[in-house]
């Protein structure tokens, strides 16, 4: 796989070409300095794009044959992203940060089709942050992944310095600083939730192992593929060398949906709604918290006095918003999910506004609320913008809120028992309390 590493610390702002492999050849590490795009020919746009590199003959040893495992499984740079650049020649890049590696699974799916272009445009990590996108697919999606990479090429994003595609997570997750785990099998008609937990759980167990083996030790992982809380739990249990705190299940879409409904009811624009927590599971048992939420800085209950609406209509609307959308649109939320992934990442890489917080599904060990330990549960968090977060302590509970939290907690504890075989905790026993639904199911 071709690796381009920006080295802003060096005086030349040159790019290093590190060891890389095509399916047959291996080049030793070499340094490129003060070159424009020289000696480069775009590789053919085939499944096994060959790697070309703008280095002089002095800097490259003769290619040596290296044994490869399964060349089909190797991720490879794609098209124009196999070229090398001289950043010194591009003055505007001189203040750029060091390149970061972002791995995305389910990269040929609907959500990714929105998300990848936001990442590449700098909407997520900022206009001075070059990125490498590493796209994970499967045999099913090989051709489609190439199509995605072609669209990324044609978009001419200056910050997008590298795109590689592959089907082996051990390859695609190498050195990942962010892993956005979107790919998962959708629940089909007549499929039991327990079966979905098992099928998708296997995917997340394997991906957890791969992250453990090859990702950055401080990788931040956002699990989107459903059932995302329990998938995130499986993933972190299979990655013991990565802090459990670094794993998130995406509940930001639910938070955004709740803000929209509160704004509509109060007749304000949604930027006036803050402090909204989604507690628990990304399922129809989730709890959108209107007790701690604020509108124009006032408690929601002082602005919306219709408690029945809050407890019944509002809560159910947020819980089932995904299903309502599927009925209209014929498929599950993709664009708004991508937006919420952007929001979730930005909440971790920018300081949280004073007094506010955001929701994310995180590991419960050490939580100050009394929620059961050892599950992934959506809770209110703040960040100082370094990628880490802390749980918010000053929240209040009443009987209504706490009883709802216990229901979603019970569901997650039951889901955990269903996947014991995937978390290293023995034999799975699956007895779910009712067959609760994903937000997208009716
Ligand atoms: N947490 C949240 O807020 C939300 C979560 N979701 C969830 O996100 C996930 C992705 O949604 P979306 O992008 O719309 O879905 P798509 O169906 O468009 O894409 C899903 C991708 O999952 C991959 N996949 C992995 N394993 C399987 C399998 N066994 N069978 C079929 N496909 C598989 C496929 O990629 P490949 O062929 O490359 O493996 C496919 O491209 C779903 O699980 C969905 O429920 C959706 C909305 C909100
Ligand atoms: O159920 C689904 O696949 C879609 C989903 O999570 C949502 O819309 O919140």
UniProtKB/TrEMBL annotation:
Gene3D superfamilies: Lactate dehydrogenase/glycoside hydrolase, family 4, C-terminal, NAD(P)-binding Rossmann-like Domain. Residues 101-248 form the Lactate/malate dehydrogenase N-terminal domain. Residues 251-421 form the Lactate/malate dehydrogenase C-terminal domain. InterPro entries: Lactate/malate_DH_C, Lactate/malate_DH_N, Lactate_DH/Glyco_Ohase_4_C, Malate_DH_AS, Malate_DH_NADP-dep_pln, Malate_DH_type2, NAD(P)-bd_dom_sf. Its EC number is 1.1.1.82. GO terms for biological process: malate metabolic process. The keyword Oxidoreductase applies. The keyword Oxidoreductase applies. One of its GO terms (molecular function) is L-malate dehydrogenase (NADP+) activity. One of its GO terms (cellular component) is chloroplast. CDD domains: MDH_chloroplast-like (cd01338). It catalyses: (S)-malate + NADP(+) = oxaloacetate + NADPH + H(+). Belongs to the LDH/MDH superfamily. MDH type 2 family. PANTHER family: MALATE DEHYDROGENASE. This is Malate dehydrogenase [NADP], chloroplastic. It comes from Ipomoea triloba. The gene is MDH5.
